[in-house]
From TrEMBL:
One example GO MF annotation: mRNA binding
TM region(s), chain numbering: none
Ranges for the PPR repeats: 98-132, 133-167, 169-203, 204-238, 239-273, 274-308, 309-343, 344-378
Name of this chain's protein: Pentatricopeptide repeat-containing protein
Pfam family membership, one: PPR
Family: Belongs to the PPR family. P subfamily.
Species, as recorded: Carya illinoinensis
Amino acid sequence: MRSLCQMGAYDSAKVVFDCMRSDGHLPDSSIVAFLVSSYTQVGKFDLAKKFLAEAQRDKVGLSIFVYNKLLDELVRWNMVDEAVCLFREHMELHSHPDTFTFNILIRGLCRMGEVDQAFVFFNDMGSFGCSPDAVTYNTLINGLCRVNEVNRGHELLKEVRTRGEPKPDVVTYTSLILGYCKLGKMYDASVLFDEMINSGIKPNAITFNVLIDGFGKAGDMLSALSMYEKMLFLGYFPDVVTFTSLIDGYCRTGQVNRGLKLWHEMSARNVGPNVYTYSVLINGLSKENRMHEARDLLRQLKCSDIVPKPFMYNPVIDLFCKAGNVDEANEIVAEMEEKKCKLDKVTFTILIIGHCMKGRMFEAISIFNKMLSIGCAPDTITVNSLISCLLKAGMPNEAFHIKQTVSQDLDLFVPSLKRTIPVGTNMDIPMAV
């Protein structure tokens, strides 16, 4: 059976297993454990559960490790309900769950946002002779913060501190600090950070990055920079997340030049940018109409290994279209396609309006048709803009054809469009976004 599983012949292994049982040769716990583990790793959960059920029927003793392995894989595959059922149907009666068992279930439920259900298992731990550990509390606190119940998470931390065991660690505090930062409650995040330091718990790079990002998003760049300097003082190396958070903060507060200075510091420190570093700096430059500098960043992106997203290109394409330079906008689109970056609805809408404003109506129609051909659903802004421009250009037949195409071909995408496109009126042209 081991050889068959290693060869991937799982059906044959099951046949051998059934033959053993029918011949009166009961498999021992090591064989069942191996089969459950093997079938679990390849996602054959139903068969793995059958092995467990048959082993229980044959009174084959199995270690909790076998059950935990199956539970862990179910949770990893986001089959949390199945994991809960496995526990209720098999483990409550036929095994002795341990703390790791409960941690797996609590982790899966918290990941699914079912925090209250996770607390049901947390409260049941004592009845099985299990005690929560640091992982249990960290998972619950992180789960509460993910559903924005940060105050409840903080209360749980206070409970842990009062009990004295298990001791909270950097993960506990960082989860809560992140929760407060996401809610914009930077004072509470700072108080927690100080409490962590005073408790003798050292922050890690993630803690600093979370706080730097939180202060940056709150527009408090003095505090963000102070946290960055503290990070350096304690010997932590800033990474791409650190720099991206700082650049984003400076761009949000209109200090794009300081963001650019950090961009060059990244290079000096040999820290490579990621998708979001490019995006925040391009957005910042675009908001200040510095389209040529933004364009230079796109040229650098072209030479990188980064797989880009359309939101990185759209602000620059929009700037060139509004400046009347649709040829340069088209060049950027060609670079997008060369980098295997699909145009999205915003890209197409910007291009259609840009070509219309230059009087290049047939190119605008061609772009619209391309949009449909790749399955990108236009919205009312896209369609109304094109029809309005065609009518103003004295092309009612083409406008009618666009409306007819929408009515016939786009029911699956935008069924409301047929009711919102009046061809007989001269509509205003919306601003490209």
